[in-house]
């Protein structure tokens, strides 16, 4: 319902990846290869596939290596949001990154989460999320996934999804629990009133819930996160099974 295609994105990639040590002692988490492909490239490819032409990516840990990789990535024009001096957390990093984009609708993605198994010939998960987003009723539309279609997740249920698509924080025993899949559609103006220092984006999730303006859309396929060394072989096994068609 955003009418024009969304052609810009912000990718949150500045985290330290501490739970993925010792792998992240020698490389930034977004560049950790999963089935032979740097983790961040799954998300960048998904953005390019949906028609995004310009992305901002924030960097901190091994920032020089991140910048070199992003400069060589062929499918998008990428601007770096530099957080070498200070990590800005998810909200502060997003606000700083959005300032480097044209005001308008935008995809926001986490660099360490991705999905596989979208249906061939049908709209992608990001296409569907953009089509679902209605700025008249929503501050943000979040891509969500049922817990049983996750790999590498810690088991935490983030939200519960009502029949009309509204999200609220999950309460034990609640109906239709979902996991936040790490992709958002929103307007850049949403964070205009945000502080200029580090803060967590959950503040805006909770504000939107309070105003009945946080909505969720369930994705197709399998969702993968690689937060620990043990999650890496699990992720690669799921990808291998998917490629084998089993």
TrEMBL record:
Keywords in alphabetical order: Nucleotidyltransferase, Transferase
User: What is the residue range of the signal peptide feature?
Assistant: none
Highest taxon listed in the record's lineage: Bacteria
Pfam families hit by this protein = NTP_transferase
Name the Gene Ontology molecular function terms of this record: nucleotidyltransferase activity
**What InterPro entries does this protein's entry cite?**
GlmU-like (IPR050065), NTP_transferase_dom (IPR005835), Nucleotide-diphossugar_trans (IPR029044)
Q: Does the keyword Cell cycle apply?
A: no
Q: Which residues form the Nucleotidyl transferase domain?
A: 9-113
* EC code: 2.7.7.-
In terms of CDD domains, this protein maps to: NTP_transferase_like_1
Matching PANTHER family:
N-ACETYLMURAMATE ALPHA-1-PHOSPHATE URIDYLYLTRANSFERASE (PTHR43584:SF8), NUCLEOTIDYL TRANSFERASE (PTHR43584)
Q: What is this protein called?
A: MurNAc alpha-1-phosphate uridylyltransferase
């Amino acid at each position: 319902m955003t009418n024009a295609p969304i052609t810009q994105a912000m990718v949150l990639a500045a985290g330290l990846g501490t739970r993925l040590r010792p792998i992240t002692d020698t490389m930034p988490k977004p560049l950790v290869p999963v089935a032979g492909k740097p983790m961040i490239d799954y998300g960048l490819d998904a953005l390019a596939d949906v028609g995004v032409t310009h992305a901002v990516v924030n960097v901190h840990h091994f920032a020089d290596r991140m910048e070199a990789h992003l400069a060589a990535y062929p499918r998008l024009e990428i601007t770096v949001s530099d957080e070498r001096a200070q990590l800005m957390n998810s909200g502060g990093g997003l606000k700083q990154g959005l300032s480097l984009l044209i005001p308008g609708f935008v995809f926001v993605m986490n660099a360490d989460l991705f999905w596989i198994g979208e249906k061939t010939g049908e709209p992608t998960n990001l296409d569907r999320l953009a089509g679902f987003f209605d700025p008249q009723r929503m501050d943000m539309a979040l891509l969500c996934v049922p817990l049983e279609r996750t790999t590498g997740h810690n088991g935490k249920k983030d939200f519960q999804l009502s029949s009309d698509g509204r999200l609220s924080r999950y309460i034990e025993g609640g109906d239709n629990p979902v996991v936040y899949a790490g992709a958002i559609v929103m307007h850049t103006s949403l964070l205009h009133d945000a502080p200029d220092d580090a803060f967590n984006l959950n503040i805006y999730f909770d504000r939107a819930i309070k105003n009945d303006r946080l909505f969720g859309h369930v994705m197709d396929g399998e969702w993968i996160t690689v937060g620990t060394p043990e999650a890496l072989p699990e992720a690669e096994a799921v990808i291998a099974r998917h490629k084998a068609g089993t």
